[in-house]
Amino acid sequence: MYQCLLGEHVKVPWRSVMCNNRATPKSLFITWLSLWNRLPTRDGLVTWKDITTDCCPLCTNEKESAAHLLFECDYSAAVWNDILHSLRFSRRSAPFDKELIWVLKATKRTGDRHKLLLMYFAECIYSIWLQRNEMVFNQKCRSRPSDILLDINL
Ligand SMILES: [Zn+2]
C-alpha cells in the first residue's frame, strides 16, 4: 500500500547533480527548474503574457530561451568560463546539455575539486538567473561576468 501511495519514481539521469550538492537551496531549486527545462524565459512567456520583447536581457543579441541563457549567451558563457578557470578545469563553456553531461561525468570522481564543481554549477545557474531577473525587472546590470564569481562567495 505504501508503495502505491508513493507512485512510480522516475529516475532521472541528472539526479547526481542534485544529490549531495552543497549549493544553497535557492540555487538548487533554480538548477532543478533548468534541468526540467522549466525556467520561465521570454521565449515561452511571449505566447501567454503581454511582453514586448523576447530578446535576451543579458546580451540583447539573441532570443531568450533556456538553452541560450545557459550557456550559449556570451554573458553566461563568460561566467561559467571564469568558474571553470578558477577550479582549474581546462575547458571552455559549451551549451547546457554538453556541460551537464560533462558535469555528470566529473561528479563520478571524488575529491574536493569535483564537489566544488557540482556546487558552483548550481550557484552559477542561480547567479545567471538573478542577473537576468535584475535586467528584466530593474534594467540594472547587477554584476559584470567577472564579478559573479565574487558574488557567489561560497
Ligand atoms: Zn544572451
From TrEMBL:
Family matches, as PANTHER family: REVERSE TRANSCRIPTASE ZINC-BINDING DOMAIN-CONTAINING PROTEIN-RELATED-RELATED, RNA-DIRECTED DNA POLYMERASE
InterPro entries with a match to the protein in the record: RVT-Znf
Superkingdom classification of source: Eukaryota
Occurrences of domain Reverse transcriptase zinc-binding (ranges): 1-80
Species per Swiss-Prot/TrEMBL record: Spinacia oleracea (Spinach)
Pfam families: zf-RVT (PF13966)
Protein name: Uncharacterized protein LOC110789969
